[in-house]
Amino acid sequence: MSEERTYKKWSARDVKKCISVPTDLDNKYSRGILGVITGSAQYPGAAVLSTAAASTTGVGMIRFHSSSGLAHLVLHTCPEVVVQPGPVSAWLLGSGISDQKYKALTTWLRHRWFVLAKRQTMPTVLDAGALYLAGKLSQPTLITPHAGELAKLLNSRGLQVSAEAIEGDPRKWVQIASDTLKVTVLLKGAITFVADSEHLIELPEATPWLATAGTGDVLAGIVAALVATNEVEILNDKSALARIAASAAFIHNVAALKASDGGPITATQITNFIPKTIGQFI
Fold first, then answer.
1. What is the CATH number of the domain that holds 73?
2. pLDDT tens across 154-173, in order?
3. Residues 144 and 96: beta-carbon distance below 8 Å
4. Is the model's pTM score more than 0.85?
């Protein structure tokens, strides 16, 4: 594990630097185009939540690529989403997709949409069922696992670790994961950590009300939208992806606190508070 990482606790001031505010010279293309491959017949809601969250985070356009007939669900919630393939500024892959979905194929990359993502080498966010692509793409890559997903991924790469061990020392394991997989890692938990080869970032403790279905899909949408709007910076600064990931996690928690007001929340409610939350940082 690298001993040279700089450590930082993330703050609202840091978040502000990662939010791209449009000017009168911008248009929907210059504000970033996010390609989204999320959801499945088993977890259709992930497609809706990830695209809805991304659309409220300030990205110029979302291209949703459906392999399970989910486009009608996404369009019902977000009619502004485009369901035709085309150029993108960033990718979000895997939310709500089981890692067993394409097991019968010789390789994951034979799936037509994942082939497209590999060829369009834009910054990429891997979640849930796409985590196995970590370290196998040429573009800047961020993964967003929880402890159980990270344990499974590391075990598949020859490291034997349990989810309980990762939960017991997330600061240690997020760094090991980044070193092993050669990607930026956002390790979700009560306290979220982000690591790349040079930086370790700690987020404030999150509200326990975030422990409910779908909140990870919302986080994936937020971070992917920020990645799309910061594409140029990411391609020119390898540490930018960690800063953007940390900012997304910060926004996610603040939006959850606003939605909760001390009580239970749903993932959909968090999405409704994303624009107001971003507004307080700019």
1. 3.40.1190.20
2. 999 999 999 999 999 999 99
3. no
4. yes
